[in-house]
Design goal:
The complex is a heterodimer of chains A (about 180) and B (about 190).
Chain A: E1 2-4, E2 10-14, H1 18-31, E3 35-39, H2 42-52, E4 56-59, H3 68-75, E5 88-92, H4 97-106, E6 110-113, H5 118-130, E7 135-137, E8 142-144, H6 173-180
Parallel strand pairs in A: 2-3, 2-4, 4-5, 5-6
Antiparallel strand pairs in A: 7-8
Helix pairs in contact in A: 2-3
Chain B: E1 10-13, E2 18-21, E3 30-32, H1 41-52, H2 56-77, H3 81-97, H4 104-119, H5 128-143, H6 145-148, H7 153-172, H8 177-184
Antiparallel strand pairs in B: 1-2
The chains are: A alpha/beta (about 180), B mainly alpha (about 190).
């Protein structure tokens, strides 16, 4: 069984609602996290992201100045000064299909719809820590692999072409974790 | 902490894309434990949340006050970018956190208000009474929580509001079928 040592992870929470920040902080501390930073808007979050180099971001969508989507797009610049590969969990009240697709295309790693639960949050964190997906760079996208499986039947827009690209093996990082444990 | 050096990345280039794989920088935080390990982080967090729940009533009251203030601003100044955004944010926050605070019916009513504000082609065209009904409902559900929840009234109230809101949105978007389809599509987000 895999376990996360939360005390080895640094989190940045970005949510303009102080109640939600308090809930998130409570959950993360209960999981065992010690380093939890908070920002109440996108601009502050970006500044803290640069200075505190968090391992995982938990961002709300709707925030003042610039929102969680814009924050994600700024971070997901391949040549950015910060870490463009950082896992971003979007925790939001928006749950419509259109919103989920937009968030995915901005480079969000995991999507978690409110209301929040301890179990759902833990599972998303476990997912990004133990099963990170490779990144894909195209002419108009840089972010985690948007494919969740290796089907060859996809015929929609932006399908990959050329050689082995039609079936992309996922990086078995969980096996690496087993080796090192 | 997790900043990547270019040399650590494995880049495979294909016809129209690159696949970039990096050694998992968070691997240090994953360890294997015995299946009999009884430490349950989720149960611990749920317990902590339960201990925090004593504050939820006050938090919910604060959220309701904010919603009422946002409506008052709309009444006073009409729909401007600022007043519309604040009313939407206030409703959106209740939609997101009221269920966690123990008021799922208030979350549903707030969700319905969010849909109105987001999907009406012109917010000024939304009947003010319909907006007020939603806000009054949220306040009543919170205020009378202990009384009306026992009767299931809160849930019924939210469902009726959603029906009224959807009826308005269907009519208001009758010339935008693609938009309407997106509005009425169910959520695809797993919540657990």
């Amino acid at each position: 069984m895999l376990r996360i040592d939360f005390n080895k992870l640094r989190f940045l929470i970005c949510d303009d609602n102080p109640h939600m920040r308090r809930i998130l902080r409570t959950l993360l501390h209960s999981f065992g996290a010690r380093e939890v930073y908070e920002a109440e808007d996108g601009a502050t979050a970006l500044e803290m992201f640069s200075h505190s180099a968090p391992d995982i971001l938990i961002v709300d969508w709707a925030m003042p100045i610039f929102d969680g989507l814009e924050l994600t797009q700024i971070i997901r610049q391949p040549d950015a000064i910060g870490n463009p590969f950082v896992p971003i969990i979007m925790l939001t009240g928006h749950s419509e299909k259109r919103r989920v697709m937009v968030a995915r295309d901005a480079g969000v790693t995991e999507f978690l719809a409110k209301p929040i639960s301890a179990k759902a949050l833990y599972q998303r964190i476990l997912s990004v820590v133990a099963h990170p997906r490779p990144f894909i760079r195209t002419k108009n996208y840089f972010g985690p692999d948007r494919r969740r499986n290796t089907t060859t039947a996809y015929i929609g827009p932006e399908r990959r072409i050329g050689g082995k690209a039609d079936v992309m093996p996922q990086s078995a990082l969980i096996d690496k974790a087993r080796v090192t444990s | 902490m997790a900043k990547q050096k270019p040399g650590e990345l494995k880049v495979e280039t294909f016809a129209e894309h690159q696949v970039i794989t990096q050694p998992n920088p968070l691997r240090r935080a994953v360890r294997r434990v015995d299946d009999n390990d009884i430490d349950d982080a989720v149960a611990r967090a749920e317990q902590a949340l339960a201990e925090l729940s004593g504050e939820f009533t006050d938090w919910m009251a604060t959220e309701c006050d904010r919603l009422a203030a946002a409506l008052a601003a709309v009444t006073k100044d009409g729909f401007t970018d600022v007043t519309r955004q604040e009313l939407f944010r206030a409703a959106h926050d209740i939609k997101g956190d009221a269920a966690t605070f123990g008021y799922p019916a208030a979350a549903a009513a707030a969700d319905s208000l969010c849909r109105l504000l987001e999907h009406a082609p012109d917010v000024a065209g939304i009947p003010r009474d319909l907006i007020a009904f939603h806000i009054n409902a949220v306040q009543a559900i919170v205020r009378e929580h202990a009384k009306i929840d026992r009767l299931g009234t809160a849930g019924e109230l939210s469902r009726k509001l959603r029906g009224m809101a959807d009826k308005f949105l269907i009519e208001a978007n009758r010339d935008r079928p693609e938009h309407l389809e997106a509005i009425l599509a169910p959520s695809i987000v797993p919540t657990a």
